[in-house]
């Protein structure tokens, strides 16, 4: 394991490792936030939780409204944080999912991290629409 420190969009990377399992975008919704273009939702970041593997959080970024069914660059990723409290804050990353980025018509993801029981998670997703990147950063959740 290597130790590197970086700060990116409120996410501090320290001793990061990958903790992935077979994931799906299902379970209990613990967070969701839409992003809009001209007053209409075009995307939504959703974080799910289930108790398997010491707690598993997954994330998907869904196309909504006018972007639904239209191919656009879409991305999602999720992190397990070292923090155990502090909903909405920054994240010192303990483990990360893969980044799912591509030209999708319906959603990016699922991506997931395990061992999240009693730890915060942080997710980030976006869709490129009408020449702009519309993104959602969850801040720490599930603490």
What is the average of the pLDDT values?
88
Give the SSE string: EEEEEEEEEEE
Biggest sheet layout:
7 strands, mixed
Helix count equals 0
Q: Evaluate the radius of gyration.
A: 14 Å
Helix content: under 10%
Number of domains: 1
Structural class, from helix and strand content?
Answer: mainly beta
Q: What shape does the CA trace take?
A: elongated
| Distance, first to last CA | 25 Å
Share in β-strands: over 45%
Are there runs of 5+ residues with pLDDT below 50, and where?
1-9, 11-18
Plain-language structure description:
With 143 residues, the protein is mostly beta strands. It has one domain. Helices cover 0% and strands 59% of the residues. The chain has no helices and eleven strands. Strands 1, 2, 6, 7, 8, 10 and 11 form a seven-stranded mixed β-sheet that branches. The chain has a four-stranded antiparallel β-sheet with strand order 3-4-5-9, with no helix packed on it. A hairpin with a 2-residue loop joins β1 and β2. It is elongated and about 40 Å long. It starts with 5 loop residues before the first strand and ends in a 6-residue tail after the last strand. The N terminus is likely disordered.
